[in-house]
Amino acid sequence: MKNLNLILFGLIVSMGTVLCHPACDGVEGRSTGVITNVGGNLSPIEKFKEENSDQRMPNVSVGEYLKRYGYLGPRDEGDEFKETEAIFQFQKVANITPTGRLDLETVANMMKPRCANEDKLPAGRTEFSRFYEVPDNATIDWRFKLGPTGSWSKNPITWRITKYTNDLPQSDVHRVMQKAFKVWADVSGLDFVEASASERKPDFDIRFEVGDHGDGSSFDGPGGVLAHCFYPRNGRAHFDDAETWSLGLGGNVINLEWVAIHEFGHGLGLDHSEIFDAVMYPFYPSDASSIALRQDDINGIQTLYGPNMNGPGPGPSPSPSSRPPAATPSPSTARPPTSGGGQQGVFPGSAHVRQCPSGGESMDAAFTDTSGNVQLLYPNNRLFSFTSQGVNSMSPLVTRNVFPYFPRAADAALTLSDGTIYVFYGSYAYVFTPNRKYPYFRHYEEMGLNENLPVDAALLYPTNNKVYLFQGNQYYRMDPANMEAEDGYPKKILDGWDRGIPDNLNAALSYGNDVYLFKQDSYWKYNTKTNRLTPGYPRYILSDWLNCAVNFGNIQLNDTRPAP
Predict the structure, then answer these.
(1) Residues near 38 by beta carbon (within 8 Å), at least 6 away in sequence
(2) What is the gyration radius of the CA atoms in the chain, in angstroms?
């Protein structure tokens, strides 16, 4: 890579080209471009060589670069279409006008210092913005990408520096690594602990290396590749010690903290982003005047681990020798049940969850998945997952770890008998069919719904196999075969259901032969055989579903009357 950069630099200088500063490439609203140069006799790389035959152009430079970073397959060089597509994709990532034609601006961007991890997604990885058409006002607009191995399944995560650089005092390097981990901890549900010297293997092993250092990803000297980090459960973070590492910003030095934050993002499960100013953008910023996560970075890490429910911490984690004893769980975390808790609830004998929702907190949606397991979706990407034995004790899980293509929030959800899952959000239904990995979309107007109101709750009624959707104080009935409102709907909830069912529900689901209706921190059980509310309700969701302690007050039960 070092030789490649020198040769490319010589090419640019010899042709008298002035390179644009990265800031002038543009951040948002860049041209979509069109692929050109397809159908000629020469591939884009060969054509570029021919047009610049009087310059010192190496035979493999651009092709090797595109292969190294995942744009071009190992046997694709020389294929006109594949090279054009590879160049087009690189130009999109580099925030230059994507044409698929190799030019000096594209070559110049290949000279920029960058991370060694690939940019383009091999088959099977998860990207949220390319694989399917998205409505203009739908919410699948993330530009971050998730790595191939998921996330860490433990917390806290340990780290240790096992080989230092000579560019900075060890105490400064140590402090930088603490700060870099804290940046991710402040916006996520993660904690980081420095491993003691007696611990055999930390989760993150941080080393400064040069050249070929035995992990299959050699460094290339000053410039080019700066560092790399392996994905979760192999957290080796390596920094090229041939670089000049600094605590400062700007100039010809490389800021260690910026690179560390980026590499630790990979180690936590993030891939590169296409957002120009995101920390997970693959190139080192030439104008790095500040160090801060952008919203795209935050969206990515919270997709994997959820948000920090306790707010940012006061500072870097203390070393093991000064670490205070573990704190007693606060009242908002998992607690032992009080009398009347989960032992008498929906899942008797259910385990304790890792963290309870706060008192009075409302869920977003509830549904029974294709395996018959109950899923309760709460705000901030939290999922409480159940089997017939009760709640998963690791709950709350990260919703998009379990359902990676769900929208970032949901108003309601249900599963049809054929395994199709509908997730309602905004004015669209996200439809997941059993043979389709990504959703298609249906607008509420198409389904006969009021497009100006959210769908509050959705359920498949077990006795007649009809779908019921609730909006405000009204409800719709649908045939699952077409999911369109039947004639005569909507109707008032008061006119079609037992008295006592509240308006503006938060969620609903069918489980067994019963229907459960949720609003705020309470739920109602509806007997589908008698079409009446079960006496003794509402009850608390926290105690009966999640085995969390609540302060029981006097709940005034609503009267019931025969349905009209």
Answers:
(1) 80, 81, 84, 100
(2) 28
**Element at 237 (helix H, strand E):** strand 235-240
94: left (phi over 0), alpha (psi -120 to 50) or beta: alpha
In Å, what is the CA distance from 161 to each residue of 83, 152, 165, 176, 196? 40, 19, 10, 11, 10
Q: Which amino acid is at 322?
A: S
CATH of the domain at 158: 3.40.390.10
Of the listed 77, 243, 263, 274, which one is catalytic?
Answer: 263
Q: Which one, of 324, 301, 94, 275, lies nearest residue 180 by Cα?
A: 301
As beta bridge partners, residue 238 has: 207, 228
Residue 47 included in any domain = yes
Compute the distance between CA of residue 215 and CA of residue 237 in angstroms, rounded to an integer: 11
Q: What is the pTM of this model?
A: 0.52
| Structure tokens that stand for 65 in this block | 């670069």
What pLDDT, on the 0 to 100 scale, is given for residue 221?
A: 85
Q: Is the dihedral of CA 456, 459, 461, 465 positive or negative?
A: positive
Is residue 447 classed as helix, strand or coil in its secondary structure?
helix
pLDDT higher than 80, residue 23:
no
Cα–Cα distance between 280 and 164 in angstroms, integer? Answer: 24
Expressed as residue numbers, the domain containing 163 is 145-320
Is the domain of 76 the same as that of 159? no
Is residue 73 predicted with pLDDT exceeding 70? Answer: yes
Return the pLDDT at 37: 40
Q: Residues of the chain with pLDDT > 70: what percent? A: 74
Contact between 195 and 313 (Cβ < 8 Å): no
Last residue of a domain, which of 111, 128, 161? 111
Q: Is 263 among the residues known to form the active site?
A: yes
Task: Give every CB contact of residue 293 below 8 A, 6+ residues apart in sequence.
Answer: 183, 184, 187, 261, 278, 279, 301
* Confidence band, pLDDT 50/70/90 cuts, at residue 31: very low
475 occurs within a structural domain:
yes
- Residue 415 has a CB neighbour count (10 Å cut-off) of 22
Residues 102 and 198 in one domain: no
